[in-house]
Design brief:
Radius of gyration: 24 Å
Helix content: 10-25%
Shape: flat
Number of domains: 3
Distance between the termini: 44 Å
CATH architecture of the largest domain: 3-Layer(aba) Sandwich
Oligomer: single chain
CATH superfamily of the largest domain: Vaccinia Virus protein VP39
Strand content: 25-35%
Length: 439
């Protein structure tokens, strides 16, 4: 929606009431919402760059008259320009509280449900936590170099970063050197992105290149990798084309402590970006499911078996179902390599499931970890599965709330517990977990 007017800066103070879903402060003036970039709840501010829309206004903080006690100095010198973070100016504990409120608000407002118990928020180290990231690359001839990093906030250009404080530190400190390397290649203007993937030991960078690389280019990549402990993969087309430049020294793997299980993955595979929160998430999910030994458990949207393998280690008769055949093949390999008795199946969980024998069975428990679109089709089939307990891991509070309404109001489950998880610290992104029990 285009702005209908451009107003001059307003000098009159405005009290910020809450945070919006994207991390901006929210206030109201004349019954109309005003979204203020850089402002925090409780603060008294004046505005600049006010743009008016029919149903809301947008502005940038001009003067901070009264600061929130939760305001902190951002660690990153690029905060406010780079779009990778939205909340570095808010203390991590306050970020957690805001995400918990956002989750509960979505459940109440969209799903008309309230958890009987609010789970303590899960969080990890707030810096250097991202083991997966897709970084843009852009040759800026005026600067004479390639910029590597996230896009600017509300912009289409790559932010000019010297370092990143939230991605894997071995790469976060190398952005300038990485840009210098790319600028020396024969096709610096045909490299749109570099993808980071870090295991417990190995570190991989995937270079997306739109034209072939020369022998000199490959030698430069090898030298950089040897100097910085990086293994290169090359991706000339889609994700399926990604392949190692040289035979890997060691595979990408992460361990699931306490379950004698390890996940091996390709650098383009989906994994949870925050290792510390992922470990807590797996522990909490299994605790909420209760005793599973000898009982049939269905793990939907199973990916590489992040939950499936621990469930099997706990003795569950678990089936992991995932729509990506490549992920399923690697999940099976992970299980077989470690002697874990987990089974896997390929199925599009957004389509009717009547033709699958496993979808006609009953299960003691169901765990689901869908993408942002949620699990509408699977939830509609839950009466057929008839689980006593359902653990729903969500990366979008709105679709969780939508699906919770069906489980509670239409199918008779109780929302026994729910809580937020800070998988993406310093962003406004809210991940969560909910437990449903048969009424």
């Amino acid at each position: 929606m285009a702005a209908v007017t451009q107003a001059a800066p307003r000098a009159e103070p405005l009290r910020i009431e809450d945070l919006a879903h994207d991390g901006r402060g929210v206030a109201h003036r004349g019954g109309k919402a005003v979204f203020v970039a850089g402002a925090l709840p409780g603060e008294l501010v004046t505005l600049t760059k006010v743009q008016r829309y029919p149903d809301h206004d947008e502005a940038v903080l001009d003067q901070l008259l009264e600061a929130s006690p939760d305001r902190v100095a951002p660690r990153c010198a690029h905060f406010g320009i780079c779009g990778g973070c939205a909340l570095q100016h808010l203390a991590p504990a306050a970020q957690l509280a805001a995400k918990q409120r956002s989750l509960l608000d979505a459940l109440a407002r969209i799903g008309k449900v309230e958890p009987q118990r609010v789970l303590a928020s899960l969080a990890g180290e707030p810096w250097g936590y991202r083991r997966r990231a897709r970084l843009g690359a852009r040759l800026v001839r005026g600067k004479g170099r390639v910029l590597v990093g996230f896009r600017e906030r509300k912009g289409r250009f790559i932010a000019d970063l010297t370092r990143c404080e939230v991605i894997e530190p071995r790469v976060g400190a190398l952005l300038v050197e990485l840009g210098t390397l790319l600028a020396r290649l024969s096709i610096p203007d045909r490299i749109p992105q570099v993808e980071l993937a870090a295991g417990d030991a190995a570190l991989v960078l995937v270079l997306r290149h739109l034209l072939p690389l020369t022998a000199t280019d490959l030698a430069a990549l090898r030298a950089f990798g040897a100097a910085h402990g990086v293994e290169w993969w090359l991706q000339p087309q889609g994700e399926g084309s990604a392949a190692p430049l040289d035979p890997p020294g060691s595979p990408l793997r992460y361990a699931l402590a306490g379950y004698d299980a390890e996940i091996e993955f390709r650098p383009t595979d989906f994994i949870q970006v925050n290792a510390a929160v992922n470990r807590q998430m797996v522990d909490q999910a299994l605790a909420l499911l209760g005793p599973v030994a000898g009982r049939p458990v269905l793990d939907l949207f199973a990916g590489l078996g992040n939950f499936t393998l621990p469930l099997a280690r706990h003795g569950a008769e678990v089936l992991g179902v995932e729509g990506d055949a490549g992920l399923v093949a690697r999940a099976r390999t992970n299980a077989e390599r470690q002697g874990i008795a987990a089974r896997f199946a390929v199925a599009d969980l957004f389509q009717p499931l009547d033709d699958y024998p496993w979808a006609r069975r009953r299960y003691a428990a169901v765990l689901l970890d869908p993408p942002r679109a949620g699990a509408r089709e699977v939830v509609a089939r839950m009466p057929r599965f008839a689980p006593e307990r359902i653990v729903y891991v969500s990366c979008h509070s709105g679709t969780l709330a939508r699906d919770a309404a069906v489980l509670v109001h239409d199918q008779g489950y109780r929302l026994a517990a729910a809580g937020a998880m800070d998988m993406f610290t310093h962003t406004a992104h809210v991940e969560s977990m909910a437990l449903f029990e048969r009424g």
